[in-house]
Design goal:
homodimer; 102 residues; alpha+beta; 5 helices; 50% helix; DNA-binding; Metalloregulator ArsR/SmtB family transcription factor (chains A, B); WH_DNA-bd_sf (chains A, B); HTH_MetalResp_TranReg (chains A, B); transcription regulation (chains A, B); transcription (chains A, B)
Chain lengths: 102, 102
DNA sequence: TCTATATATAAGTTAATTATTATATAAGAG
DNA sequence: CTCTTATATAATAATTAACTTATATATAGA
């Protein structure tokens, strides 16, 4: 595994906000709006965190109307797999409950 | 695994200089003086990197005269084990060749 | 088309990291 | 005891990262 990619992925996951995002994504797709509530930071800050995880090849997204749903990619590197294994699953998303996105 | 420890360990390994230190430590004990040559940064900078790895519970040290030899601890967490598995071993140390420490 | 909502990007600020230089500590050699 | 060498700590400068506010883009709906 390339040392540069390794560093990039490790930097991407070495932040408590982003680890929280990943623990939510373990079990389900989550949309950006839900993360704003969970982390208690501004929407642009959330977008920037998600971008970092996406650029590191850890998550991906699909558009659903005006919403954007993020999820883990399928084939993670061994290091990211180990990180995900250590993270507790966290129920995060209101998606489907009708309160926000769906 | 505690989220705080996890973040601390991930921060400790998410730096290319420190990843290089670890790749040297995979195969052997290494003393500080050798790392200065390898990384091409100042001796205090090396000390600070080693301290960060030590505080994260990844490496430990023993004194040998005025030298200090660092090595990996035996029981690594799953994440750090995954990181070490991905790192290529690197021959780093002059120890034993008589050029510097021994 | 105009408006409202969700998300992204840009610019700027604050905070955290990583480096440097200077100095302290500790051990061995003379 | 003094000098030298190896390492650590302190203070500080430089770089990078994370957040905020303001603005842009894109989509849905009236």
């Amino acid at each position: 595994m390339d040392l540069q990619l390794m560093e990039k992925q490790l930097k991407a996951v070495s932040d408590s906000n982003r680890l929280t995002l990943l623990s939510c994504l373990k079990s389900a797709e989550v949309c950006v709006c839900d993360f704003v509530d969970i982390l208690g930071i501004s929407q642009p800050a959330v977008s920037q965190h998600l971008k970092k995880l996406e650029e590191a090849g850890i998550i991906t997204a699909r558009k659903v109307g005006t919403w954007k749903h993020y999820r883990l990619i399928e084939n993670q590197t061994p290091i990211i797999r180990a990180v995900l294994d250590e993270l507790e699953e966290r129920q995060a998303c209101n998606c489907g409950t009708g309160t926000s996105c769906d």
